[in-house]
C-alpha cells in the first residue's frame, strides 16, 4: 500500500514539474514578446521624434520666410506723368497687388505632377507612395506629388516590408 502511495506521489510530482515547465515556457514567451514590443515602441518614438523635429524645422523656415516677406518694403510702381504746364506735379504711387497665399498654393497644386498616378478610391496614399518609389521617384518628389511630408513618406517606405 505504501508503495502504491509513493508511486502516486512520484507521478503527481512529475506531472507538477511538467506543468511548471509549461508555465515557465509561456512566461518566457510573454517576456520575449514584451521585449519586442518595447523595442518597437522605442523605434516608433524615435521615428515620431525625428518627424516632429523635422516638422519644427520646416515651421521655423516658414516663419523666417514669412518674416522676410513682411520685412521687404512694398514695391510700388509710379504712374508716368504727362507733360503739363506745371513742372512740379506730384507723382502718384500705384500699389501692386500681392497674390494671396491660398491662390498661389492652389495654382502650385494644380500644376503639380499629380497626374502621373490618378488618385482613386481604390488606391490609398501608401500604395501610391510605393508605386512612385518603384518608378524611381525621390522621396521629395513623392512627398510633393502626394501632398504629404517628406518624413511621412520615409516612414511609409521604411515600414513597407512589415
Short description:
By secondary structure, the protein is mainly alpha-helical. It has helices at residues 2-71, 101-110, 125-134, 139-146, 150-158, and strands spanning 76-78, 93-95.
Keyphrases for this structure?
66% helix; two-stranded antiparallel sheet; 162 residues; single chain; 5 helices; mainly alpha
Describe the structure.
The chain has 162 residues and is mainly alpha-helical. Among the domains are: 47 residues; 63 residues, no CATH class. Helix content is 66%, strand content 4%. It has 5 helices and 2 strands; from the N terminus they run H-E-E-H-H-H-H. A two-stranded antiparallel sheet has the order 1-2. Helix 3 runs antiparallel to helix 4 and helix 4 packs across helix 5. The protein starts with a helix and ends with a helix. 5% of the residues are buried.
Note poorly predicted spans: 112-117
Mean pLDDT: 79
Gross morphology is elongated
Describe the main β-sheet briefly.
2 strands, antiparallel
Question: What gyration radius follows from the Cα positions, in whole Å?
Answer: 35 Å
The amount of helix comes to 55-70%
What is the beta-strand fraction?
A: under 5%
Task: Supply the helix-strand structural class.
Answer: mainly alpha
Strand order of the largest sheet: 1-2
User: End-to-end span in angstroms?
Assistant: 62 Å
Order of helices and strands: HEEHHHH
Count of DSSP strands: 2
Number of helices: 5
Amino acid at each position: 500500500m505504501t508503495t502504491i502511495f509513493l508511486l502516486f506521489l512520484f507521478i503527481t510530482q512529475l506531472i507538477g514539474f511538467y506543468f511548471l515547465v509549461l508555465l515557465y515556457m509561456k512566461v518566457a514567451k510573454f517576456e520575449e514578446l514584451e521585449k519586442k514590443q518595447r523595442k518597437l515602441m522605442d523605434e516608433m518614438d524615435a521615428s515620431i521624434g525625428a518627424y516632429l523635429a523635422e516638422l519644427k524645422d520646416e515651421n521655423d523656415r516658414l516663419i523666417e520666410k514669412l518674416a522676410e516677406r513682411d520685412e521687404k518694403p512694398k514695391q510700388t510702381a509710379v504712374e508716368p506723368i504727362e507733360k503739363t504746364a506745371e513742372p512740379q506735379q506730384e507723382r502718384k504711387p500705384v500699389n501692386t497687388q500681392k497674390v494671396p497665399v491660398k491662390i498661389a498654393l492652389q495654382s502650385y497644386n494644380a500644376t503639380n505632377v499629380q497626374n502621373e498616378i490618378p488618385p482613386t478610391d481604390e488606391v490609398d496614399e501608401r500604395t501610391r507612395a510605393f508605386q512612385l518609389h518603384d518608378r524611381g521617384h525621390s522621396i521629395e518628389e513623392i512627398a510633393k506629388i502626394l501632398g504629404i511630408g517628406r518624413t511621412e513618406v520615409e516612414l511609409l517606405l521604411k515600414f513597407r516590408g512589415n
